[in-house]
Each structure stands twice: as structure tokens, then as C-alpha cells.
Protein 1
Amino acid sequence: MKRFLIFSIAMVVVATGTALGHSLLVRADSPMTETQIQRIRENCVEAQSTLYQLHASDALLRVNRGQLYETMSTKLMEPFDSRLTLNSYDASGLVTVAADYDAKLTEFRVDYQQYEEAMSRTLAINCTNQPVAFYDSVADTRSKRTKVHDATLVLHQLIGDYKDAFEKFAKDFKETDK
């Protein structure tokens, strides 16, 4: 989470200049001033460099996290839940959490794809020639990245929920086995 916040803040600061904190709130209601536009132009190279680095690190992180999330579902949850069901155990708590996890995993994939497309569009904009379009595109990309981050938080929560459901199942299993 700290890394996400640092990158988000860096994107805003680099893209708009350090003195434009107020303009982030004003932008939706009023056009950008010439001073704000000039700051974007002046910081264009730095902003693009930061975005390229972020894009590369996010791609690697997405692959690693995506594989981990996928493995949790296909190699752990699904086989375990199937075995329990085949052996006539009540795995309803585990199955419910696993289904929620799979739905959120699908949402994570879609959110990441939208973020990737937005980032690619942002990187294609020449911020020296199109500073307002660049600023707006960075804001859109940031909001899509936030959705990806939120999806990962929910996935982690669901992993914890699955652990809790497993522990409840194990406790109930031990009690009925006695």
C-alpha cells in the first residue's frame, strides 16, 4: 500500500509540479491555467520517465501476483473443495469463499487490463504538445490503478476468509471425528 501511495503521489507531483496541489481539486470545475500547463511541459520528461518505470514495474508485479492468485484458486482452493465435496463433507463455507475469490480474480484481471490500456494511452501522449490531455490521462490512469489496488486488497481479504473457513472446517471435522 505504501508503494502504491508513493507512486501515486509521485505521478501527481511530477506531472503537475509541486505547487499545483490545489489545482487537483479545481481541475474538474475549471480549465487549467497557463501556469499549470507550463509546469506540465517543464516536467514532461521526468513525468514520462517515471511513468515508464512504473509501467515496467507494474507489469512484472502483475505477472507475479496474477500467477500467485491463479495458483491459489486452481491448485489449492478448487482441488481441496472438490475433494471435500466428493467425500460428502460440508465444504459450503469454503466453496462460498472460493467462488467469491474467483469472481474477484476475474474482476482483478479486467481492472488490470483497463489500467494497462489507460497507461499505454498516457505514455503515447506527448506531454509537451498536449499537456492538458496528458494531465487528464494521468488522472484516468491513476483512478484505474486505484481499482486494481482495491481488487488486490479484496483478494487478500478473501484469502484470509478462506483460511478462516478452513480453520472452522478443521475444527468441526475434529469434533465430529471424536
Protein 2
Amino acid sequence: MLKATELTKNMFVRWENQLQMILDTDHVKPGKGPAYVQAKMKNMETGTIKFNRINSSDKVEDVEIERRNLQYLYDASGTRKGPFVFMNNDTFEQVEIDSIALPPEQSQWLIENIECMVTTFEGKILSVDLPASVDLKIIETAPQARGATATNQSKDATVETGAKIKVPPFIEQGQVVRVSPQTGEYLGKA
């Protein structure tokens, strides 16, 4: 059990008999009345996000979650819609992760052999965290326009996974670029 004041971002707790992920906390000390913690929580069953007010002296049940690095192998469907097959490099055990735990906005950045942090609770996959950057090959983009030297210009490009990104005008087909999977933003040449 944890005191409400010990809650931190990205922690998992059981609140109202539901597994919740703490997204944010704010310690409030009003002029009148007792201090409390305003916790923004995501229900891991329903996906709903709710603000909960917890008295500072109250206790919250913390839960043991497991985090481990798994290596992405392939998409079992072949359509980039999952299930996605990952392997534990220590045990060589393979795990299938469906598109609920790994939605399209994340799975569009998966390339073979990429290491991802997978969070599980009681055998159920809660989330898959991709690395901060991924190196991807440009398979399609328009050629550089003549005289396009302004740095704030960008053009559309498609990477090897099929994802679409914006790149500077000097990037050409066949080049490898570094992309942020969290934002889909071009970070530079790889």
C-alpha cells in the first residue's frame, strides 16, 4: 500500500477495484480543509481517463507490473494489422500482441529486430513502448525542387513500413532517416 502523496507518473495502482495507470498528479493544499492529491488516471480495462481526488492520508494499493524488452519479429497477418510477434531474447519465447495493445499509430513504426519495452500485469499486455527513435528507409518521395533551400520547407515521404512523414526537401528516395515514433516527426539523417 502507498500513501496518496507517493503516487507518481507512469505508476500502476488498483483504484476502485480497477487497474489504473497514473498519468499525472498534483498535490493540492487548500486554505481550508485537508490537503489532497488530484490524480489523473487511465483505466486499463476501459481506456477512460478520469481525475480522482484522494486525501493525502489515504492509502492506495500498488500493483506489481512486469516490464521487459522484447524484440519485434514480424506481423502474423502480413497486413500490418497484427497480431504482432515479439520474442524474449533471454528465453526465446514468442509472444503475440494484438492491435488493442499495439494500435496502428504505434505499429506503423515497427521494423524487424526493433527492441520494445512491453508492460504486463498478471499475464495481460498493458502497453508497448517503442524506442525514442527509429531508423527507416525512404521508399517514396518527390525529387528536390530546384532552388528549394529554405529550411522550413518540407515534403511528403513514405518510409519502408508504409508510414507517411514530412521530410526536408534534400531527402531523397533510398536514404535512411531517423523518426520519432511518438510524434512521427523527422529527426535527421541516420
Protein 3
Amino acid sequence: MKDFFLPKTTTAKISVGLIWLFHFSGLLGILFINRELFLETTPVNLFITIVLLFVNLPDVNKGVLVAAAVAFVVGMGVELLGVNYGLIFGQYVYGDNLGVKIGGVPLLIGANWVMLTFITGAVGAVLFKKSTAVAAAVGALLMVLLDLVIEPVAPKFDYWEFANETAPLSNYIGWFLVAFPIQWIYQKYVTQKDIVFSFHLVLVQFLFFGIFSITQLAS
């Protein structure tokens, strides 16, 4: 655990420090300063985070680009089916705090599929180095769990909202079924994975949205 928790290079130290600063500042800003102003910066923060993810990859080669392209295209494709036809995840719509949309789906959602695939896949690879299938399953499960944590606050943040207010079971089943093959491709094609930055980003996302979910459910 210690080996991939402590950043060793200058790039990793700066990157890890920035994502903790972004999320901690966002937490305080949303809770105590100006909720709408801080939520409107979501696209900028997400874009910077994705850039930092690729900066921290040991080697951005053809395999990385293939895995990223698959995650983006498949992610955007299933989101378009969901928003416009209610397929896979259920019937839902995106709000205005995630930036420019195509067919009702923010472009950053496609990028978010890439980010989530890479960071959760890296954690899965560390825990289960000898089995591609198990590592992919763990990565997909982490993606589902993170979605589960975000769902209670997504409507309040104007990210997205389901027709019946609460995400249906099909949403989580759909997430796993879509995420698993993408994760499998990631495990196969990205041979040199970033561990430290990915671990911290997974952790900070769970903490950030977890705190808001707990306060939302308690209110």
C-alpha cells in the first residue's frame, strides 16, 4: 500500500497536491462560500484533472490511446442511448454544470469515462496483477461504487437527474456491464499504468462525493 500511496517524483507530488487542493477547496466553497459559483467550475476542474492523469502516465503510447479512445467512444455512445432513448441506464437528463453537450450528453462525460477507467483500472491492476479479468472486474466494480456515491447529490449539483428522481437498479447493472469490457481493454493495452496519482484520485473522489452524499441523505 505504501508504495503506491506516497508520491515520489516532483510531478506526482505536485499533481497529487493539486487534486487534493481542488477537491478540498471545492468542498469548502460549495458548503460555505458560493455553491453555484464553485459548481460552475466543475468542467474546468475535471479538464485539469484529466490532463494531470495523462501527465502522470509513464508512457502515452499507442496502447494508451487505444484504451482512451475505446473508453471515450463507448462511454459517449451508451450515454447518448441513455439520455435519448432510456436504454441501459434508464431515463435521465444532464444538467448545465458539466459543460458543452452533444445530443444532450456533455463532452466531458466521455472524458470522464476515460478518467474513471484509467484510475480505477490502475487500482485493480495493483491489487490483482496476475489476472486481467479480475483486475478488470475490480475496476468496473469501483466505477459502480463511485457512481453509487455520486447519485444522491448529482441532481443537487445539476449534473444529471433520473426521471423517477432515484437511479434504478438497471443503472448500476448497466454501469458494470459497460465498464467491464472497457476495463479489460485498459488492462490489456495499457501495460505501464500510473498508480500513485490514480490511487489518490480514486480516494479523493470517494471522500468528496461521499461527504456530500452523507449530508444529503441525512438532511
Protein 4
Amino acid sequence: MDHKKFATVINCIDGRVQLPAAEWIKRGFRVDYVDVVTEAGPIKILAEQRDIKVIASIKRRVEISISQHLSRIVAVVGHFDCAGNSVGKDTQLKQLEAAVRAVEKWGLNVKVIGLWVDEDEKVTRSA
């Protein structure tokens, strides 16, 4: 395997937010590649901790990124107009904070951050 650096993003399936989040991570953390784990409305799923099978699937895929690509940063992403989580921004930002805490509890020994993507594709760090 080459010596390129990886990060991991837990992101929505929404194609509008894939590139902005990946590009932000690449610039902000100086990584070459971004592994993407997608679900519809992942911050809701991770914050509510109800759908154990989906959470286990997300965790398994993140663990592969960390163990096989040596990813050392995991970003959880929320975004505007989410079809899988149709609540307002304020609620989503609270979910995003809870989702970050949930991923931190997995004990993966990596940095976990939250990102928000707005309707203009502007990415901000929110947690």
C-alpha cells in the first residue's frame, strides 16, 4: 500500500454534499483520500441510537477505513434540506453534536468532528 493519507466521512447519500465535505476534509486535514460511508440521514440515526443494525453497519465500515487505510480523522456530516432527516437546521445541529459523541464512544482512537454543509455548499465545522 502507498503512503497516502486517508480520512473518513460519515455522510448522507445526498449527492449535493459529497464533494464539498470531501474537499473540505482534504484541505483542512491535508489528506489525499476520503473514504465515504453513506446513509440517508446518518446524524439522526447516530443521534437517536435506535436502529442498531444500521449503526453497526456504519461502525463496521468506519473500522475498515481506519484499520485498512489508517484513517485518523472521522467527520460526521449534516446538511441542509436532508430528505432522510427532514427537520430544521437547529435540530440537525443538535443531532450532529450527539452523533459525534456517539462515534467518539466507539473508542476508535481517532479524531471525530462534525461538519455542516449549507445550501451554498459552504462547509463549517460544527462539533
